[in-house]
Amino acid sequence: MELIKTEFPWLTERSAQISNEQIDSLFQYLVNFDIAPNGTEGYRTAEVTLGGVNTNEVSSKTFESQKQKGLYFIGEVLDVTGWLGGYNFQWAWASGFCAGQYV
Question: What is the pTM assigned to this prediction?
Fold first, then answer.
């Protein structure tokens, strides 16, 4: 935070008082800003994990396994990752509904 105050002391000014050059410099700073995570809290607090049944091995129409006839995979058991916020529920319901049409 101190770097931003040092680099852009004019940020507290009214926007009408900020020049185009100042806006451009802030834009360049934000575009090139790097975030380096320094660790995680592990699976204890994880909300999203990767992995699961490879979607290339499952019919995109029926969700039936291409390796074992009569075996269907839906929802989070598949290797599908999405945003947080209930999208996993929607994916589970939608893929379950689709597979249910063929079981």
Answer: 0.54
